[in-house]
Amino acid sequence: MTYSIVATDPVSGAMGAATATGLAAVGGFVTHTRFGAGAIATQGLFTNWISGEKGLALLMQGHDANKVMEILVNEDNGSSQRQFIVCDTLGNTAGHTGHANKDFKIHVCRQDYAIAGNMLAGKDIIEAMEAAFLGDESQELHLRLINSLMAGEKAGGDYRGTHSCAVKVSYFDRPPFDLRVDWADYNCCQQLLSIYEKTQCTSFQEFIAWVPTIAEPDKKKVMLEPAMPLAATLVAPDIIANDKENI
Questions:
Q1: Does 183 fall in a domain?
Q2: 3-state secondary structure 65-117
Q3: 35 in a domain, yes or no?
Q4: Would the pTM of this model clear 0.85, i.e. be above it?
Q5: Would you state the pLDDT for residue 231?
Q6: What CATH number did the domain enclosing 113 receive?
Q7: Confidence band of 234 (pLDDT split at 50, 70, 90)
Q8: With contact defined as beta carbons under 8 Å apart, do 29 and 19 qualify?
Q9: Which among 141, 144, 83, 155 has a CA at the least distance from the CA of 116?
Q10: Which of 94, 110, 177, 212 has its CA 20 to 30 A from that of 17?
Q11: Cα(95)–Cα(2) distance, integer angstroms
Q12: pLDDT single digits (tens) 214-230
């Protein structure tokens, strides 16, 4: 019912995940990222979102992607109904697709990224996502992930249609990038791109420039104190005279 991608930017260390599905509000269940730990997408016939938080904690403890996958599968009695992909900070990736997930189902694991899907219209969705992600490696990670989702939807996506999508990236030197479309009747991933474009307006960029980051957790814009109006600094002579009479 879902197609997703997790990835790291080996230059910046950013960790990202993006997902799309035929149901509503996919971003609340699938994407899990943390700078300095990794990225995980948890999906399947019945998504175990807890595996995302557990997996990030395991990555923070120093386990690599394969070890995290092994632990998550072994500790989940419903693993036959799960599908997930993991990417660690070194770009190692691992994936699991339980046999109870509905066809077409697949996951592919490469250096620095992994892609998975179930209830897909066909194998070419994953191939299209991969080609789009690799198409322009000079782009920032969040744009590469959005492009990958758009290509997956264009190639057929979820065979019920694509109705929600999300992208989440954890950066070191900028605030988290976290955008969602919780429901769309059509062109869902294109609408995600449109939301991204809204964030590029001047007012939003002026705001985001001063939001704290991992690199600068105490970032603060120095605000000049407004000058006191002249009228408030002067005392009328008749008030002074009246005050003297009352002394």
A1: yes
A2: HHHHHHHHHHCCCCHHHEEEEEEECCCCEEEEECCCCCCCCEEEEECCEEEEE
A3: yes
A4: yes
A5: 54
A6: 3.60.20.10
A7: low
A8: no
A9: 83
A10: 212
A11: 14
A12: 999 999 988 877 666 65
